[in-house]
Design brief:
Helix content is about 30%, strand content about 25%. By secondary structure, it is of the alpha/beta class. The chain has 2 domains: about 100 residues, Beta-Lactamase (2-Layer Sandwich), CATH 3.30.450.90; about 260 residues, Rossmann fold (3-Layer(aba) Sandwich). A 9-stranded mixed β-sheet has the order 9-8-10-11-7-12-13-14-15, sandwiched between helices. The protein is globular.
């Protein structure tokens, strides 16, 4: 049997034209648009490269090797491949006939700094007061959703936030493809699996979630919420499973709740929309919105409490604890911005106090300044 180290070196050999980028910690994504065009993302910006594969078959050989490594197939009948490389990088490929001018390959790399809290502060992804606030929220078992667009840094924040979970708790992590790097001594890491070529052996996120509920989790972490499992997660939140963390794609805090609605309705359980909205408002406590700005930097733009759902207006009631303001560009073209407290004191302060946590003084200072004449 071929060991993983041999497989890893073999794969790197097939990917030799982009090997230097795989070894470069500043590169977060490698995009292969056919054999003659390779782009990378470095520090949030796209760069064209001179890297080339000899021909289309060279790219296909690399992809077939990757598919073999993860027990999948890639060919005309299976033109889409999602896989994880031995170093943890995520690979997505689309080949002919679905990609007539392909193969198209994207390799998402995950920096070892992605769970470094000091690094997040250094990059001004969020402020010290915001970080201390999130420490209190996660530590007090509030349910937190991290939302943002593709490549905005959702998984990096999720990795970092797991450090706020007390070490006496048991964490269950559920993902489509293993990306979350939990910094914790007691972790159960579960990964979904697609069906084989004969339609057998599929294990869905929903299957794993239901199994997890019977494994005594103190915390449930969902790598990315994509479909009908949203309803299971919401119902777990409102039935005593506090401290859930998860990510999903959405552009603004209000959109996050709309997306959860839409995904929950993909489940096989029919629930009146009004009842679903009330459960979402009750289950989700906080939304952390993250965005990739035009200068390539990744920033937390909002930390928002989900206060309630107003049945009369049909709208969620949201209140921002922190909002990022923008102040033009500096001489290097970087966007100047600041994530600051709004002066709103959230309704869940008593829950923080029950867990021996407190909000930073800056939130109360902002509240006093807001109400001073």
């Amino acid at each position: 049997m071929i060991g993983p180290e041999v497989y890893a070196e073999t794969l790197r050999g097939f990917l030799e034209p982009v090997r230097s980028f795989l070894d470069d910690p500043s590169v977060s994504e490698i995009m292969i648009n056919g054999p003659s065009t390779v782009f990378i993302e470095r520090r949030g910006r796209l760069e064209a490269t001179s890297a080339r594969f000899p021909n289309r078959e060279a790219v296909m050989c690399a992809l077939r090797n990757v598919a073999q490594f993860v027990g999948k197939r890639i060919d005309e009948l299976h033109p889409i491949l999602e896989a994880r490389l031995p170093d943890g990088s995520r690979l997505q490929a689309v080949v002919q006939p679905a990609a007539p001018d392909g193969p198209y390959v994207s390799i998402r790399r995950f920096s070892k700094d992605s769970f470094n809290l000091a690094r997040l502060l250094e990059l001004d992804t969020l402020s010290r007061d915001a970080l201390d606030t999130l420490d209190a929220l996660v530590g007090s078992k509030l349910n937190v959703m991290i939302a943002g667009g593709t490549g905005s840094g959702k998984t990096s924040l999720l990795n970092a936030f797991t450090q706020f979970i007390p070490h006496g708790e048991r964490i269950a992590v559920i993902e489509d493809s293993k990306e979350v790097q939990v910094q914790h001594p007691h972790v159960v890491q579960l990964e979904a699996r697609p069906a084989d070529a004969h339609g057998r052996g599929a294990v869905s996120i929903r299957d794993l979630f239901r199994a997890t509920l019977r494994m005594r989790p103190d915390r449930i972490v969902i790598g990315e919420i994509r479909g009908g499992e949203a309803l299971d997660i919401i119902q777990a939140m409102v039935s005593g499973h506090g401290g859930c963390l998860g990510t999903l794609h959405a552009s603004y805090p209000r959109d996050t709740l709309t997306r959860l609605e839409t995904m929950a309705m993909m489940s096989d359980v029919e629930l009146p929309l009004q009842a679903l909205r009330l459960q979402i408002a009750s289950g989700v406590n906080v939304i952390v919105q993250v965005s990739r700005l035009s200068d390539g930097s990744r920033k937390v733009t909002h930390i928002t409490e989900v206060v309630s759902f107003d049945s009369n207006s049909g709208r969620y009631v949201l209140s921002d604890l922190f909002v990022r303001s923008y102040h033009g560009q500096d001489a290097a073209g970087r966007i100047r911005s600041e994530l600051a407290p709004t002066g709103y004191i959230p309704s869940f302060v008593p829950q923080l106090e029950e867990h021996g946590k407190a909000l930073p003084a800056a939130l109360y200072d902002a509240a006093r300044a807001k109400h001073e004449p």
